[in-house]
């Protein structure tokens, strides 16, 4: 019972991070300075890459140790499938990235605000899956993943979700939307994370035999978001070194959290 309650708390932590970030709309100006935005995007990238390696890929390889020299295989397959899954979502779901001139995906009559939220929702899906599969592994008791390590991943994602919530809500306010509406859209962008996590945990019985594949699948999906979206946005234009510094800080912080708490 205690483990189940801890899992509930764990899957809600990233959503809390997004909500607190979205709340910045109530006490900050309409827009984030370009340099600050680059630093935040770089920071989020660093957290996601470190989480993918230490919290997902390494446990996936360790969980496949019985395969000997082929222990890498489930992780390699999972990463490839995770990237392919996000690529598919990127193609079939209309969305608009922050500061982009034109939407991506199929043509649609959806409003700009809706497509902005869909863009953030796209890369919240793998984060929710990552948290869900890790806590599912803890609840199963057969994955070798500790509760502390699961909370480290959850906390790391929550930390990178805070600036993410601000990055979605503040521009919406700057475009003429009210504070409440901008906040709600920012919060809604993160709702998919606990939903994806809960669905994953409910399927624990089916997941356990496939744990190495699913851990690396979530890693591949997160890495796709980093390479396709976050790093390019953090590097475009001048002063891209700010994004690089943000990446280093995020990577080191997530690495420390996972090793120290795991």
What is the element layout, followed by pairings?
Elements: H1 2-22, H2 34-62, H3 72-92, H4 112-140, H5 147-174, H6 179-202, H7 204-207, H8 211-235, H9 241-261
Helix pairs in contact: 1-4, 1-5, 1-6, 2-3, 2-5, 2-8, 2-9, 3-8, 4-5, 4-6, 4-8, 5-6, 5-9
How is this structure best described in words?
- It contains 9 helices and no strands.
- Helix content is 77%, strand content 0%.
- The protein has helices at residues 2-22, 34-62, 72-92, 112-140, 147-174, 179-202, 204-207, 211-235, 241-261.
- The longest helix is centred in the first third of the chain and has 29 residues, at 34-62.
- The model has no long low-confidence stretch (mean pLDDT 82).
- It is mainly α and 262 residues long.
- The chain starts with a helix and ends with a helix.
- 55% of the residues are buried.
State the main characteristics.
262 residues, single chain, mainly alpha
Number of strands: 0
Number of domains: 1
Structural class: mainly alpha
State the separation between the terminal residues, measured CA to CA.
21 Å
Strand content: under 5%
The dominant shape is globular
Radius of gyration, in Å, reads: 18 Å
What would the average pLDDT be, to the nearest integer? 82
N-to-C series of helices and strands: HHHHHHHHH
Oligomer: single chain
Low-pLDDT parts are: none
Number of helices: 9
Largest β sheet strand count, sense and barrel closure: none
What level of helicity do the residues show?
A: over 70%
The gist of it:
The protein is mainly alpha-helical and 262 residues long. The protein has helices at 2-22, 34-62, 72-92, 112-140, 147-174, 179-202, 204-207, 211-235, 241-261.
């Amino acid at each position: 019972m205690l483990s189940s309650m801890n899992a509930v708390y764990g899957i809600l932590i990233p959503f809390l991070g997004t909500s607190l970030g979205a709340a910045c709309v109530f006490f900050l100006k309409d827009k984030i300075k370009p340099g600050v935005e680059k630093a935040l995007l770089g920071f989020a990238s660093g957290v996601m890459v470190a989480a993918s390696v230490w919290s997902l890929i390494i446990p996936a390889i360790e969980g496949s140790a019985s395969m000997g020299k082929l222990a890498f295989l489930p992780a390699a397959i999972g990463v490839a499938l995770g990237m392919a899954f996000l690529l598919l979502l990127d193609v079939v779901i209309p969305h608009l990235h922050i500061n982009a001139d034109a939407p991506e995906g199929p043509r649609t009559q959806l409003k700009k605000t809706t497509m902005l939220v869909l863009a953030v929702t796209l890369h919240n899906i793998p984060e929710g899956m990552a948290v869900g599969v890790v806590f599912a592994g803890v609840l199963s008791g057969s994955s070798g993943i500790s509760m502390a390590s699961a909370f480290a991943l959850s906390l790391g994602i929550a930390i990178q979700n805070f600036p993410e919530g601000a990055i979605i809500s503040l521009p919406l306010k700057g475009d003429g939307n009210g504070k409440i509406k901008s906040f709600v859209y920012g919060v809604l962008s993160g709702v998919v994370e606990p939903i994806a996590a809960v669905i994953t945990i409910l399927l624990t019985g089916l997941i356990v035999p496939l744990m190495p594949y699913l851990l690396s699948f979530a890693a591949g999906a997160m890495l796709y978001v980093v390479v396709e979206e976050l790093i390019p946005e953090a590097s475009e234009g001048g002063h891209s070194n700010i994004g690089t510094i943000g990446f280093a800080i995020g990577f080191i912080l997530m690495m420390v959290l996972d090793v120290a708490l795991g």
